[in-house]
Design goal:
The protein is of the alpha/beta class and 237 residues long. It has 8 helices and 12 strands.
């Protein structure tokens, strides 16, 4: 069974070979390279479903590869998962802010990696969940979201937003005032729930707030519980 196509950009040969072996066993068509520039060229050539991307690479680092993929109309829909030994939150936030769909920190288990890949592919290629609806528009004060066009406007200006960020913001904005814990947010964004992914939720919320700019406080933290969208009186959209 063909599960999809993946390009791996990883300079450590043992990890690269392990990833190729693991993912081919899962039914994926896999191509791999150790060089960042070659990885970008390969992704542009084959247009895979997903790029598995290390951060520290010769030729071109992973963050620049991600930035260029997401800036190009032809490649911006390719899913990106960053696989990195750099576990600091700032690196995670940077990657997600550039448009990466997820990250996995080394060392990782094959089962976890495969689960993350399937989750990202379901989210980006599959239909929207019934809870979120398959179309529609949400207008909350300075924010307008169009699900059919996957578009976010803030003060009338279009803002680049990843699929995960859009689903998280849609979930909260569709129910202003309701508090969602991290598992609920991750379940809506990925179709799964895991306490181990709570840090990823926090990182996505950080990038969302950055993109909302002066309206960042619309996404509120409820200490020891989760997040909610402000239920203040709406302004005309």
């Amino acid at each position: 069974m063909h599960a999809g196509s993946i390009v791996i950009v990883e300079d450590e040969s043992d990890i690269r070979e392990f990833l190729v072996y693991t993912l081919e066993r899962e039914g994926f068509t896999v191509q791999a390279t150790p060089d960042g520039k070659q990885g970008l060229d390969l992704a542009r050539k084959v247009l895979p479903d997903l790029v598995l991307l290390d951060l520290m690479l010769p030729g071109m680092d992973g963050t620049e590869i991600c930035r260029q993929l997401k800036a190009d109309e032809e490649t911006r829909e390719i899913s990106v998962i960053m696989v990195t030994a750099k576990g600091e939150e700032s690196d995670v936030v940077l990657g997600l802010g550039l448009g990466a769909d997820d990250y996995v920190s080394k060392p990782f288990s094959p089962r976890e990696l495969v689960a993350r890949i399937h989750a990202v592919m379901r989210r980006t290629a599959g239909p929207a969940s019934p809870e979120l609806g398959e179309s529609g528009v949400i207008a909350r004060g300075p924010i307008r979201m169009d699900r059919g066009k996957h578009r976010l406007l803030v003060d009338g200006e279009a803002v680049e937003i990843t699929a995960t960020e859009f689903r998280i913001l849609w979930l909260m904005a569709s129910r202003p005032g309701r508090v969602f814990d991290r598992d609920q947010i991750m379940a809506a964004a990925r179709g799964e729930s895991s306490a181990s992914l709570s840090r990823s939720v926090d990182a996505h919320v950080r990038t969302l707030r950055k993109k909302l700019g002066s309206h960042r406080d619309l996404v509120q933290t409820v200490r020891a519980v989760g997040y909610r969208f402000s239920d203040d009186e709406e302004r005309p959209a």
